[in-house]
Design a protein that fits this description.
The model has no long low-confidence stretch (mean pLDDT about 95). The protein is globular, with a radius of gyration of 23 Å. The protein is about 30% helix and about 20% strand. The two termini are about 30 Å apart. By secondary structure, it is of the alpha+beta class.
Length: about 475
């Protein structure tokens, strides 16, 4: 089989990347070793910046179409009892969006199926060969390959790519289950995440309700003792944790799905190895705190997708593909640092020094400026790449075609040249990669105040502003060939 890009892994990262490439007309094949989609809830929500990114492609609204409405709550830092407030970041999504990872995957895979993109399940990668002209995985040949196959990446192993960092120190279990009976200690409604952690009888635990009578339980032993990663999670150990933390009247009903994880911290040194790229958990892993993993992966995909498509389609300017590593590696490195800091603050040992640090950090989070800083960091709304402007605010616009939002103008996956002063500008012969829209608005983009025109990259970041005083043509050539 011949294609242009081989995507290994049908999780959120791989499926989103395939979606981006398909929008640009690039042939893609997705390989996935699992024969069926994992039904476990895993990541339970989207951070605000990822919600914005999905909105840029028209994906968020269908995802939320039959999502139960519920009281919105702010995010958390280290499960401390202060809601993170993203409203100062001028986003339409100031709260984390409750959404099971399985639902995101199902939506993305259906989009690919509708577009005729093959998602080949039961296809395990054992060898990867690349040369000057392309990459081969068995009988499948492409010009490039992107490893989106998770923390234990087969592609990374096949290439012998180092994955430096630290092994996990606190093994834990995540389980989806029902309860046959429960004590008063079991939460029955959703609220801020800080209400869920509990420590009792040598266990730490987080138990919170999902939809349809399901609960998600995360637990481990404070001693760090646990079976090996490959050992199946048993009904007995889940039952033991429930009783130890929530009392003998809390009884397991059905164990639907369960898996083991740890707080291991690792990151590949380079996100590109010849014609092979790494994204999502194949590139970086960290303690699963605050839904950072799926959010990093989706944004990796959207950053890489248009750049790789530009290369395949023959218009990528020199060095464009290298900006994927230059921009995304530091973002993940920062997440690795702050999740490690959160792990310390969540220390289940609860010694007096950590308790004092938690109290001080809680006080700081109540300060508006500190809360804004941490909320921007946790949500991804503060990301700004070197030499690139801020994320584009989703302004309300009046265009020649009628009312619109910026996000609605970017569903095609192209760049956007937005003229806000009524003057039509020239993007040269780049109409295949840039949409030009003349509009009016009462709003402004933070970091580009006073701009009469803006050039927005396909991933939603401002590449040029008329307020910069730099020539438009230079930015067009830098990012769009």
């Amino acid at each position: 089989m011949r294609t242009e890009v081989i995507v290994v892994g049908a999780g959120p990262t791989g499926l989103m990347l395939a979606h981006e490439l398909t929008l640009a007309g690039v042939p893609v094949v997705v390989l996935e070793k699992q024969r069926t989609r994992n039904p476990q809830s895993r990541a339970g929500g989207l951070q605000p910046r990822t919600a914005e990114v999905l909105d840029l492609r028209g994906l968020l609204e269908p995802l939320l179409a039959d999502n139960p409405s519920e009281r919105a709550t702010g995010g958390h830092f280290a499960m401390l009892p202060v809601e993170l407030d993203c409203r100062p970041w001028r986003t339409r999504h100031p709260y984390p969006v409750p959404l099971p990872q399985a639902r995101l995957e199902a939506c993305l895979e259906q989009r690919l199926t509708d577009r005729g993109v093959p998602v080949l399940r039961g296809h395990e990668v054992s060898a990867v060969a690349q040369d000057a002209d392309g990459v081969s995985v068995g009988t499948i040949r492409g010009s490039h390959l992107v490893a989106c196959d998770g923390a234990h990446s087969a592609v990374r192993a096949a290439l012998g790519t180092p994955f430096p960092g630290r092994a996990g120190q606190m093994p834990a279990v995540a389980a989806d289950l029902t309860l046959a009976s429960r004590s008063d200690e079991v939460p029955t409604t959703r609220g801020h995440f800080s209400q869920y952690p509990r420590f009792a009888n040598g266990f730490f635990s987080i138990l919170h309700p999902l939809d349809g009578g399901l609960y998600r339980l995360i637990f481990g032993k404070a001693s760090g003792d646990a079976p090996g990663r490959e050992a199946p999670v048993t009904v007995d150990e889940v039952r033991e944790a429930l009783r130890a933390v929530y009392g003998p009247e809390t009884e397991l009903g059905e164990l639907r799905a369960a898996s083991r994880f740890s707080d291991a911290v690792r990151q590949v040194e380079r996100y590109r190895e010849g014609r092979v790229f790494f994204a999502g958990d194949a590139a970086h892993i960290h303690a699963p705190i605050g839904g950072q993993g799926v959010n990093l992966g989706v944004q990796d995909a959207v950053n890489l997708g248009w750049k790789l498509a530009a290369e395949v389609n023959g218009w990528a300017p020199a060095g464009l593909l290298d900006t994927y590593h230059d921009e995304r590696h530091p973002v993940a490195a920062r997440v690795l640092r702050h999740t490690r800091a959160q792990t310390v603050l969540m220390n289940p040992g609860r010694d007096e020094e950590v308790a004092a640090l938690r109290d001080l950090t809680t006080e700081l989070l109540r300060l508006p400026e500190t809360n804004r800083y941490i909320s921007g960091m946790m949500s991804g709304l503060d990301i700004q790449y070197p030499g690139v402007g801020p994320r584009m605010t989703d302004l309300d616009l009046t265009t020649e075609a009628g009312p619109a939002r910026v996000s609605g103008l970017m569903h095609s996956g192209k760049g956007l040249l937005l003229s806000l002063d009524g003057k039509r500008r020239s993007a040269g012969d780049r109409s295949d990669r840039i949409d030009h829209v003349v509009a009016e608005t009462d709003g402004e983009v933070e970091g580009a105040e006073g701009a009469e025109a803006l050039l927005v990259r396909p991933d939603g970041y401002v590449a040029w502003s008329s307020a910069d005083g730099t020539p438009l043509e230079a930015a067009l050539a830098r990012w769009f060939g």
